[in-house]
Design brief:
The structure holds two protein chains of two kinds.
Chain A: E1 3-14, H1 53-65, E2 69-70, E3 73-74, E4 76-80, E5 90-94, E6 100-101, E7 104-108, E8 115-127, E9 131-134, H2 138-143, E10 153-156, E11 163-169, H3 176-192, E12 205-215, E13 225-230, H4 233-252, E14 261-265, E15 270-273, H5 276-279, E16 286-287, E17 294-296, E18 300-302, E19 311-312, H6 320-326, H7 332-343, H8 347-353, H9 357-369, H10 373-391, H11 402-413, H12 419-432, H13 436-443, H14 451-464, H15 466-473, H16 480-490, H17 497-509
Parallel strand pairs in A: 13-14
Antiparallel strand pairs in A: 1-11, 1-12, 2-6, 3-17, 4-5, 4-16, 6-8, 7-8, 8-11, 9-10, 12-13, 14-15, 17-18, 18-19
Chain B: H1 8-16, H2 22-40, E1 43-46, H3 48-63, E2 75-79, H4 106-113, E3 117-122, H5 156-163, E4 169-173, H6 180-186, E5 189-192, E6 213-217, H7 220-230, E7 260-264, H8 274-289, E8 293-297, H9 305-320, H10 339-350, H11 353-366, H12 372-395, E9 398-402, H13 418-422, H14 429-434, E10 438-445, E11 451-457, H15 463-478
Parallel strand pairs in B: 2-3, 2-4, 7-8, 7-9
Antiparallel strand pairs in B: 1-3, 4-6, 5-6, 5-10, 9-11, 10-11
Helix pairs in contact in B: 2-3, 7-15, 9-11, 9-12
The chains are: A alpha+beta, B alpha/beta.
């Protein structure tokens, strides 16, 4: 029997605000443990939360980008549970009145090219918890000298109060592949909006999944399980495949699926149930009495930065939500469509170039200075991406500015450089950050197009290799490449290859 | 002239005129405390050094004829659930008996800005849960009118300090009557302000939607003076109202107003001690003599106030007190090998019985399956109680009730009977549930010589009305 899986995701995305959601502490990653804390995020007795306006705006951007509806009134709720890295004993989240409902994200199934909408249930705002560091963890023993004994646990509260949005999907995905496609798309949108770094390994994007399976064509849903602790895109696909197979195995052997929470173990590549004690939570949600209703009025938001302090936004002619909408950047789908039309490049190119906002920006900036859009596309998809991958860096860290790439390409067009030389120069640029002119000058890398000079080199090559010449003339034309190579060697690659080809052919046939 | 008997506004004048040195005055208060605190147990911590230092600054300002703050030189006691930087803030609990906050509550900053002298931290029922101060880990405070009686609670230490002249003014907190009831039982003035007028930042939370800091003073004028200083918007408190603080002294007796007075019939009859009821009725007679119009009204939902209060307050408390887990600060039980054990031992040993009782109640009413029946319903009734008041305040300026159904009761008398103890709050919890301001002023004494309190309630933000009415009654009750 063939099965399909029914998957719904809960994605947590850390918002790239400067400060935490309820206090002024910095949110930067990798600081010394507990160095980015204050009485508020440490939950000291007597402190109170004040909602960060930026966090609200970022969350609203995401809602609008996926076509969701911003609730005119939403409220915060306390989710109560005990854990050492949860300093207040509750997390401030949203529960029955979230920031938004609805919206969707479209994915494309690679095999069929079919488009599919993954619908969202809601998006809400909440605060992150801290981190527990167990002395067995390498990350902990390596970075801290405070370990007294094995088995000791320390807590790092830097992450406490980092703003998160939780994005909950409907159970619309039918395979682990679809789940990763969705996650990639979501990450892409978050990056385009510049509200989340999308880095799963650093924990700025996290994902839990609800999974069930059923025979294809069956309409009744199976019992679902919840899979947690998937810390990379790869882990998501692996874990979900594992869970799907596990459930099918149970059903085929006549067993029943138990509704439970499971943890993915990335090292052992298997799934294990959470201890029942850990999951028997009754979170006792109730409205957070220390915060007020978050309200979107036509011109203002109230409930942020101190209650009833209504900050004025914008002009009186548009609503605040409308204003945020107008501030949205062009989103990946729209940009891709425009690229195809405006730059006359294949869909494949447009898709690849728009995966990341920074890459698409790079491409456009380059085309502005060098209008052969297809040539630029080839270079960006080929050379640029290769360099980024080899150097394990992002576009923003890349040492070759788009203008420099454009001027390099112009020098190929003008004949100053051969294609091969340009590629070598480009690698040098990526390494040193120097301009192409500078590198060409320093290395004396000007292409030789002077026919006289090339002619004399060719003549000496032919003179030195009479045997090969004989072979060529007796019909073994593939030794032609040998002559080209020898000429290039003698000119240190500077000879213009088309000139070399032309003269070689003339000389050999004479 | 005895400094201990002066009102705050009188003491400030003396200091301003140079008739007494501030440091000298503060020193005499500290001496008095050292003499009497053993029997009264009003103060948990004295801030002697910083108080004397602040006094020197005031003296310097006086000698240099600099502008003096509104509370210049006035010794003020602060309830020990309000954070004072660098000074132990215990909340009357074993679980916080070593906690030193690294920050000042907003009200503390405001006191300091007005040159007040904070002389110490006062005793309270553990986490402000109680009506007698007997729930303090550090032992009960005693009523200065009769040392065998309770001072009321939870701000018992603050009420005792003011009533016995150990401090000129004090701050308390009122979640269900914790300022007004001890004020009544000790014979001083206690105000529970409108919810949101005084910042809660730095007040250790008991029930966030009910808690409010307020003044305990010797007279209404001091109450208005202190409230004027501590009120006003605070960006650190999201529930703080966008109002600016005001000088309530200016309008206190600027003109004689006639008030429309509502007397809820539910507040009289069975349950009240005879002396209390008589004293309040006498006060009502006085109002009629002042030509105020007095009418009987009904607050039909008042009978549900106690039940509603104990659902909402305990629900919030169960969550607010979750942070005391032995992990980060405060008491930690030794020798726990497992996390759960650490929590259980720390909280089991660190909290007293009343606190545990309320945490359990609150946890229960928020539990899956019970939420709607208790917390959900409680919130609805709370709205009805508020509407009761809204209706009355359409036609009336103030509502008059006893503050407490009884005068000060004996130490140990009710401690084993929590339900009877809870009834001490029967007339006070409504104001917290409705978010409205209410004051308790002395209105005579029982035959045994124990003080009786009269409560005046008004609509939200009508503190000015309350002060005017209370001031007029105070002036006329004297004679």
């Amino acid at each position: 029997m063939k099965y399909e899986s029914i998957i719904g995701l809960e994605v947590h995305a850390q918002l790239l605000t400067d400060s935490k959601i309820f206090c002024g502490c910095s949110v930067s990653y990798g600081a010394d443990p507990n160095s980015q804390t204050c009485p508020v995020c440490l939950g000291l007795p007597g402190v109170l939360p004040v909602l960060n306006k930026k966090a609200v705006e970022y969350a609203v951007k995401m809602v609008l980008a996926v076509g969701g509806t911003v609730a005119p009134h939403s409220i915060f709720a306390r989710k109560n549970y005990f854990y050492p890295d949860l300093p207040k004993g509750y997390q401030i989240s949203q529960y029955d009145q979230p920031l938004s409902t609805g919206g969707s994200v479209e994915i494309e199934i690679p095999e069929s090219k079919a488009k599919k909408k993954i619908h969202l249930t809601r998006i809400h705002l909440e605060e992150d918890a801290g981190k527990s560091l167990h002395s067995e963890d390498n990350s902990y023993t390596n970075t801290s000298s405070n370990v007294k004994q094995k088995g000791e646990t320390l807590v790092d509260m830097n992450r406490c109060g980092v703003p998160l949005i939780e994005i909950v999907t409907q159970p619309d995905m039918r395979s682990p592949k679809e789940a990763t496609l969705f996650l990639n798309k979501l990450k892409q949108i978050l990056e385009y909006l510049e509200i989340c770094s999308g880095n799963m390994e650093e924990g700025s994007l996290r994902c839990d999944a609800n999974v069930s399976v059923r025979p294809i064509a069956q309409t009744k849903l199976g019992t679902k399980t919840e899979v947690k602790n998937m810390n990379s895109f790869k882990a998501v696909e692996k874990a979900l495949n594992f869970e799907m197979e596990r459930q099918i195995g149970i059903i085929e052997s006549g067993g029943r699926i138990i509704q439970e929470t499971l943890l993915w173990d990335a090292e052992k590549e298997l799934i294990a149930p959470m201890r029942s004690k850990e999951e028997s939570h009754d979170y006792r949600y109730f409205p957070e009495p220390d915060l007020v209703v978050l309200k979107f009025h036509p011109q203002t938001i109230s409930g942020i930065g101190g209650i009833r302090s209504e900050e004025k936004f914008g002009t009186p002619t548009i609503t605040i939500v409308e204003k945020i909408k107008q501030s949205l950047p062009e989103l990946p789908e729209a940009r891709k469509t425009r690229f195809i039309k405006q730059y006359q490049i294949p869909e494949y190119d447009a898709e690849l170039l728009t995966t990341e906002k920074k890459l698409a920006d790079y491409y456009e900036e380059c085309v502005k200075n060098y209008p052969n859009s297809k040539a630029v596309s080839n270079w960006v998809m080929g050379e640029v991406l290769r360099e980024l991958k080899e150097r394990k860096i992002s576009v923003s860290e890349f040492k070759v500015p788009p203008k420099e790439l454009a001027s390099l390409l112009k020098q190929v067009d003008s004949g100053t450089l051969s294609g091969k030389m340009a590629k070598d120069v480009f690698v040098e640029m990526a390494e040193t950050g120097l301009s192409s002119e500078k590198i060409i000058q320093e290395k004396g890398l000007v292409q030789v197009t002077d026919t006289k000079e090339i002619e004399s080199v060719i003549e000496s090559v032919l003179r030195e290799n009479p045997g090969e010449v004989e072979k060529y003339r007796s019909g073994k034309e593939r030794v032609f490449g040998f002559f080209v190579g020898e000429v290039m060697k003698k000119t240190k690659g500077k000879a213009n290859p088309s000139v070399v080809n032309q003269i070689l052919k003339e000389k050999l046939s004479s | 002239m005895k400094l201990a008997e002066l009102k705050g506004w009188e003491l400030r004048e003396l200091i301003k005129k140079g008739e007494t040195g501030c440091k000298e005055a503060v020193a005499s208060f500290l001496d008095e405390i050292k003499k009497k605190n053993k029997s009264l147990n009003s103060f948990l911590t004295l801030t002697e050094e910083s108080a004397l230092k602040s006094a020197e600054i005031v003296d310097k300002k006086v000698s240099q004829k600099q502008k003096l703050g509104a509370l210049a030189g006035i010794p003020i006691a602060v309830k020990d659930n309000i954070c004072l930087r660098g000074v132990k803030t215990t909340c009357g609990s074993h679980i916080l008996d070593n906690f030193v906050p690294p920050y000042n509550a907003t009200v503390v900053e405001k006191l300091k800005k007005e040159d007040a002298i904070i002389i110490g931290k006062t005793n309270l029922d553990e986490f402000a849960m109680g009506s007698s101060t007997e729930n303090s880990y550090f032992g009960p405070s005693k009523n200065p009118h009769d040392l065998k009686k309770v001072p009321g609670g939870s701000s018992g230490g603050s009420a005792v300090a003011v009533a016995s002249g150990l401090a000129t003014m004090a701050l308390g907190s009122d979640t269900g009557g914790s300022i007004r009831q001890p004020a009544a039982l000790c014979g001083v003035v206690g105000l529970k302000p409108t919810y949101g007028t005084v910042s809660r930042y730095g007040l250790v939370a008991f029930a966030s939607s009910l808690d409010q800091i307020g003044p305990l003073t010797k007279d209404v004028k001091d109450s208005a003076l202190l409230f004027g200083v501590i009120s006003g918007h605070d960006p650190n408190d999201s529930t703080s109202l966008k109002i600016s603080s005001k000088d309530y002294l200016k309008t206190l007796d600027s003109y004689k107003t006639k008030f429309k007075v509502a007397v809820p019939k539910e507040a009289f009859g069975a349950g009240n001690e005879k002396d209390v009821e008589e004293a309040v009725k006498k006060a009502i007679k006085l109002m009629e003599k002042l030509n105020w119009s007095v009418s009987e009204v009904s607050l039909p939902y008042m009978e549900y106030a106690i039940a509603t209060y104990y659902i909402i307050a305990t629900a919030e408390a169960s969550s607010n007190l979750a942070r005391y887990d032995g992990v980060k600060y405060g008491y930690r039980s030794k020798d726990s090998s497992q996390l759960l054990e650490l929590y259980q031992n720390t909280r089991g040993e660190g909290f007293g019985n009343e606190v545990k009782r309320r945490i359990m109640l609150g946890t229960y009413v928020l539990s899956a399956g019970y939420y709607e029946a208790y917390y959900g319903k409680g919130q609805k009734v709370r709205t009805f109680i508020k509407q009761d008041f809204d209706n009355v305040f359409k036609d009336f300026d103030i509502v008059i009730m006893p503050t407490s159904p009884t005068v000060a009761f004996g130490l140990g008398e009710k401690i084993e009977d929590p339900l009877t103890m809870y009834l001490s709050d029967i007339f006070t919890v409504s104001a917290n549930l409705a978010g409205i301001p209410a004051i308790s002023i002395p209105c005579g004494k029982s035959k045994a010589g124990l003080p009786i309190g009269l409560q005046i309630l008004a609509k939200p933000l009508a503190e000015e009305t309350i002060f005017k009415a209370a001031y007029m009654l105070e002036q006329n009750l004297k004679t």
